[in-house]
Design goal:
By secondary structure, the protein is an alpha+beta fold. The chain is built from three helices and eight strands; from the N terminus they run H-H-E-E-H-E-E-E-E-E-E. This is Class E sortase.
Length: 237
C-alpha cells in the first residue's frame, strides 16, 4: 500500500485548506463589492449630484433676463454649468456640461469641456472646437453608449437662450490617450482642414479600461432660439 500522511498531518492540511477557501471567498466578496461600488453606486451618487445641479441651473435660467447677448450663457459657467448636451443615439438623456475635465469635475456625473492641454471653444464663438469629455463607466458613465453614435446623427447643445444643432460627420474608435490633436480647433484627423464650428466627444475605450480614447466629431448645422416653452428642435422630438 502507498504511504499515507499521519492523521495529525491530514487534519492540519484540511484545516489549512478550509481557511484558504474561506479567505478566497472573502476576497471574492470584497472584490465583488468593490466592482459594484465602482460601476453602480458611483453612478447613483453622480447622477443625484448632476440632477440636483442641473435643476439649479435651470432655475437660474428661469430667473435670468430674457434673451441677451450670446456671451451671457458663458457667464453661467462660473456658477457651475454652461448648458446641457443631448445625444439621442446615446439614449436621449441630458448631460450637464461644466468647465474642465479633471476627475473633480467629471466624477460628479457631468461632461466637461477642455481647458487644457488644448482650450476648447464654446458653441457661441464664431469658430473653434467645442471639445468635451465624460466617463464611459462609473461616476455617471455619461458617454457609456458613445459607440452607438453614427455619422449623420444629431448632437444638440442647449443653453439658456439657444439650441446648437450639430451633425456627426466622423468618428475614431480608438486612439492614444495622448493624442491631443483630436481636440484641436481644426481636428484634422476628422478630415477637416479649415476652421469651422465643431463639437468633439471623447471618452475612454475599451469599456472598463482607460487605455485608449474614443472620439466622435460633429459640425454645427444651425442654431435655434429657445422659445418660452423651451420647445426642443426637431432632432430631439
Amino acid at each position: 500500500m502507498p504511504p499515507t500522511a499521519p492523521p495529525r498531518n491530514r487534519s492540519l492540511l484540511a484545516g489549512f485548506l478550509s481557511l484558504l477557501g474561506e479567505f478566497l471567498i472573502t476576497v471574492g466578496l470584497v472584490l465583488g463589492l468593490f466592482v459594484a461600488y465602482s460601476l453602480w453606486w458611483t453612478n447613483v451618487l453622480a447622477d443625484r449630484q448632476a440632477s440636483s445641479r442641473g435643476d439649479e441651473i435651470r432655475r437660474q435660467w428661469l430667473s435670468a433676463p430674457a434673451a441677451g447677448a450670446p456671451a451671457e450663457p458663458g457667464a453661467l459657467d462660473t456658477q457651475g454649468g454652461a448648458g446641457f448636451l443631448h445625444v439621442p443615439a446615446m439614449g436621449g438623456g441630458e448631460v450637464l456640461v461644466k468647465r474642465g475635465t479633471s476627475p473633480e469635475v467629471l466624477n460628479h456625473g457631468v461632461a466637461g469641456y477642455y481647458t487644457e492641454p488644448v482650450k476648447s471653444a464654446l458653441p457661441w464663438e464664431a469658430s473653434g472646437n467645442f471639445a468635451l469629455a465624460a466617463h464611459r463607466d462609473g461616476h455617471g458613465a455619461k458617454f457609456h453608449d458613445i459607440h452607438r453614435i453614427r455619422r449623420g446623427d444629431a448632437i444638440v447643445f442647449e443653453t439658456r437662450d439657444t439650441w446648437y444643432v450639430y451633425k456627426v460627420f466622423a468618428e475614431l474608435r480608438q486612439t492614444s490617450k495622448y493624442n491631443v490633436d483630436v481636440i484641436s480647433p481644426v481636428p484634422k484627423e476628422s478630415g477637416k482642414t479649415a476652421p469651422g464650428r465643431y463639437i468633439t466627444l471623447t471618452t475612454c475605450t475599451p469599456v472598463y479600461t482607460s487605455k485608449y480614447r474614443y472620439v466622435v466629431w460633429g459640425e454645427l448645422v444651425r442654431t435655434e432660439k429657445v422659445d418660452a416653452k423651451r420647445t426642443p428642435p426637431a432632432e430631439l422630438r
